[in-house]
Amino acid sequence: MNKLLVVGAGTMGRGIAHVGALSGFDVAITDKKGVDVGPAVLSIRADLDKGVAKGKLDATLRDAAVARLRASTDFCKDAEAADIVIEAVFEDIDLKTSIVKHLEEHVRPDALIGTNTSSLSITKIAAAAQHPGRVIGTHFFNPVHIMQLLEIVMAEQTTPATLERTLALAKTLGKTAIVVKDVPGFATSRLGVCLGLEAIRMLEQGVASAADIDTALELGYRHPMGPLKLTDLVGLDVRLAIADHLHRELKGDQYKAPDLMRRMVAEGKLGKKTGQGFYRWVDGNAVAG
Question: Domain 188-278: which topology?
Answer without folding.
Answer: N-(1-d-carboxylethyl)-l-norvaline Dehydrogenase; domain 2 (1.10.1040)
